[in-house]
Amino acid sequence: MMGVAGILERSIARSTGADVPEWYEAGKVYLERHPEVSFGALVWTTIALSGWAEFKRLQDIRSPGSQGDGSFLGITDDFKGNGNGYPGGKFFDPLGYSRGSEASLKSYKEKELKNGRLAMVAFVGFAAQFAATGKGPIDCLKAHLSDPGHINAVTNGVSVPFISN
Questions:
Q1: Buried b / exposed e along 30-60 (16+ C-beta atoms within 10 A)
Q2: Burial class of 94 by CB neighbour count within 10 A (0 to 12, 13 to 18, 19+)
Q3: Taken in order 90, 45, 51, 115, is the CA torsion positive or negative?
Q4: CA distances from 87 to 16, 63, 71, 144 (A)
Q5: SS3 content of the chain, % helix, strand, coil (to 5)
Q6: CA-closest candidate to residue 4, choices 124, 89, 114, 101
Q7: Residue 110, pLDDT score
Q8: For residues 49 and 36, what is the distance between their CA atoms, to the nearest angstrom?
Q9: Blockwise average pLDDT, block size 10, the chain, 165 residues
């Protein structure tokens, strides 16, 4: 969900004249501006950090509660959640949503899943837009709003397998 928000934020900022790259150019631009950082270092750092978090989550699924002591590498006790695999505390739940009733917590979890699925669909749409037009989402939206009859999903170069010639 945050990735989709970041894509939109960059696209909006770029459309207002800010000197920021679109989401599909961000990695390349970062490496060009910071030649002291290698691509391999970025990839392996991402894999290591993501792998650590996913391994902790897997261990908590295999042995419920084994990773939920509420500490971060034994440093602080501010991450204690109220369920298996759900972090909490002042950093993950600053508004205290998990401290309400079980029914409201269940409702919040369902809403988070639905919003996450919607964000995945939005990202697929952003990727398809870029593949078809080479533009970001706000640029595509502006172009469509300026001429909806001629600039749309049917006319922008997307080939749909069941409608092909």
A1: eeeeeeeeeeeeeeeeeeeeeeeeeeeeeeb
A2: exposed
A3: positive
A4: 37, 16, 10, 42
A5: 60, 0, 40
A6: 124
A7: 92
A8: 21
A9: 92 92 89 90 90 82 69 61 63 77 87 93 91 88 86 66 47
The tokens for 113 are 């899943």
Residues 130 and 139: their CA atoms lie apart, in Å, by: 10
- pTM > 0.85: yes or no: no
Which one, of 119, 125, 123, 163, lies nearest residue 144 by Cα?
A: 125
d(CA 130, CA 92): 33
Phi-psi region of 23 (alpha: psi -120 to 50; beta: other; left: phi over 0): alpha
Q: Residue holding tokens 């593949």?
A: 131
> If 0-12 CB within 10 Å is exposed, 13-18 middle and 19+ buried, where does residue 136 land?
buried
